[in-house]
Amino acid sequence: VEASIPEPQRAAWKKFQANGFISQEDFEREVVRHVETTLARSMFNCDETAAYAAASLAFRDRLITEWNRTQQRQTFADGKRVYYLSLEFLMGRALDNAMLNVGLKDVAKNGLSDLGFRIEDIIDQEHDAALGNGGLGRLAACFLDSLASLNYPAWGYGLRYRYGIFKQEIVDGYQVEVPDYWLDFNPWEFPRHDVVVDIQFYGNVRKYQDEVGKQIAVWEGGEIVKAVAYDVPIPGFDTPTTNNLRLWSSKAASGEFDFQKFNSGDYESSVADQQRAETISAVLYPNDNLERGKELRLKQQYFWVAASLYDIVRRFKKTKRAWAEFPEQVAIQLNDTHPTLAVVELQRILIDLEGLEWDEAWTIVTKTFGYTNHTVLPEALEKWSVPLMQNLLPRHLQIIYEVNLYFLQSVERKFPKERELLSRVSIIEESQPKMVRMAYLAIVGSHKVNGVAELHSDLIKTTIFKDFVKIFGPDKFTNVTNGITPRRWLHQANPRLSELIASKTGGIGFLKDLNLLNELEKYVDDKEFKKEWAEIKYANKVRLAKHIKTTTGVTVNPAALFDIQVKRIHEYKRQQMNIFGVIHRYLTIKAMTPEERKKLAPRVSIFGGKAAPGYWMAKTIIHLINNVGAVVNKDKDVGDLLKVIFLEDYNVSKAEIIVPASDVSEHISTAGTEASGTSNMKFVLNGGLIIGTCDGANIEITREIGENNIFLFGNLAEDVEDLRHAHTYGSHTLDPDLVKVFEEIKKGTFGDATAFGALTGAIEDHGDYYLVSDDFHSYIQTQALVDEAYKNQDEWISKTIMSVARMGFFSSDRCINEYAESIWNVEPLSPKKETAPGLLM
Ligand code: 475
């Protein structure tokens, strides 16, 4: 029951309404108040942690005020809302972002200084919110920023993991995983202990016919777990709109104790039940581009989907509209197949709980959902075993079978003679055990399916989803090329560059209309501008060099070419090719005379990224990189000409230091494997060039910035299949330079060679699935072109300016507007519009 204050008493509320600070004085007052009351400290024991906490709470209070207004505005406007369902939100830090988005960073800086603190040190206290693995989770975070900044009425729904992605430590060159216990103190969330949803698991389905002969299904028995909402405010940039990210946390249904067990003396097992319930939201699965079919993962998925849908349906029901209007009020986007059970859950709610007819319900469901595919890698495509689902979600499995039946019947009517087609597109794979193919379920249950870059969207239409294009027609399949938020990835990460750009493009408007970067083209030959541009890049490299020194102890020369590859470690992303290239460079330097060496461009090869804990090959790659570094970095013949660095524990806040410091970054996946990539966009936006393959968004980046401004190499996606076939069935001769690299590894130059046998073996003996040898020569040659080009600094700087000027397309604002128009059919809700009269603001 929702309580509302009667009209005569509202004046008192209005008089005392919370407004949040605006002035520096109010900010300081709020910080001191939080230190002295919320944190129960004083000026005599206020360290940087406490100052961070108090500053964050002051901003949180301000955000929640705007959040309340935004929610009221959206409720009264009564329009369509977007719900972004994602198992991952890789948010990073919140304080710096909140200060910049609400435009009060200077106020906070001066205020903190007044109280005796440096703002950079305070920002640095924050623990990253790392509720994601990589690209998919960070994309969700960029989308939330754009949705709020563009004033879309939108909510994110996810899980409040107690443990985010693990912390990576490097011990003797090996990756060691340490749990990320991040919720110890998190000032950015609001627990909503009044927003609790019961979630059912296991049990049975009882079917009967009611008085009028209608089939009724009742899901009963099993166990109940509670979902508790935690809200994270999402401030838009330069707008009062503050949206909501709702994260669900699991809790035992019986509260503190199971009293029956407690009374019967079984205290231990009642505590165990409680812990089992809390396990559901305990930990983020640490795999990127891989699904392993674990029951707990399926539990997470249903728990989160059921709680979110309950919330969405409850909100809709308050409008008292007819069910047929549901898709005009609600758009739900499935971030990959992880939330696909939402399709089934909504159908279940409509037919079992709300009494709609199947067809009527299914029309509503398919109009509501859109599905985004993020990968074509077969090992990442989700499949759930039928027996597992039968046990955990018996009613959902029945509904899936029924969806499949009607779908296959329609396919049969349309293509009566194609028996093979039916088994190919069946949502149930007839294997042992049978499996539910989640991507097929997502396609059948949505009105639009999109890929995340042009090449990728074309590939899904011609390969994994080919049959579905034939069945549903090509219009159901579309492309929305990914984007990144320029607020975090330019303004926040690279404030000096942002300021320089603002000074030439008429203010900070480019942060909301990134195409304004075009103005910079005028300055590609402007001497003064280029000098400032180069100084900023150098300063960013000095900053990274300091970070390298403090974290690894290695001194690197900021004047050297910084060559960076940071992303999850994966064979398809080919960090192994990069490190083999580094070894090749090392051998080349060793074979040179001192005279020859003087002509070389010094380089620092920087790597970073986590390997999934169970991904042995990826861990071996990390080991090799570290061992090569250990040898090269102390070799007197080499000196500054080559340094090899592995940065520990790559995450969002470290990316904010790393991205602005590249001269070249590597995006070198086997063509056709990287759906889009988004760090490629971040690096170019910060004035770095790319060495990359014709894959994912690299292709569109090339089209936008011009092929003279990018170093492309390697085989094309269309040739990959034939090359792989030739490896397996033809004679497979390795690239001679690569052979030399392997010989050096086998000699033991980089430590015990047996440790790296799997790595070289995958290429020599097991078909070189990722075409490392096929692309190696072209890679080495292109690296030589990079060296040459870098020698002409004047031209290099012009290339980077030209590239930044042409990056407007890759704003996540453009991307979100495309989703809004072509998939969601939602409109922004301007905060300037007057709200209903008498509304408690
Ligand atoms: C692509 N993650 C990038 C990015 O679209 C692309 C997480 C859990 C389980 C299985 N897989 C995942 C991904 O599939 C993923 O991160 N995909 C990435 O999505 C955003 O830019 O190319 O690899």
From TrEMBL:
Protein role: Allosteric enzyme that catalyzes the rate-limiting step in glycogen catabolism, the phosphorolytic cleavage of glycogen to produce glucose-1-phosphate, and plays a central role in maintaining cellular and organismal glucose homeostasis.
Annotated catalysed reactions: [(1->4)-alpha-D-glucosyl](n) + phosphate = [(1->4)-alpha-D-glucosyl](n-1) + alpha-D-glucose 1-phosphate
GO-annotated cellular components: cytoplasm
Molecular functions per Gene Ontology: glycogen phosphorylase activity; pyridoxal phosphate binding
The entry's keywords: Allosteric enzyme, Carbohydrate metabolism, Glycosyltransferase, Pyridoxal phosphate, Transferase
Modified sites of kind N6-(pyridoxal phosphate)lysine: 682
Cofactor(s), by name: pyridoxal 5'-phosphate
Protein name from the UniProt record: Alpha-1,4 glucan phosphorylase
EC number: 2.4.1.1
GO biological process, one term: glycogen catabolic process
Keyword flag Coiled coil: no
InterPro entries to which the protein is assigned, alphabetical: Glycg_phsphrylas, Glyco_trans_35, Pyridoxal_P_attach_site
Record family assignment: Belongs to the glycogen phosphorylase family.
Pfam families: Phosphorylase
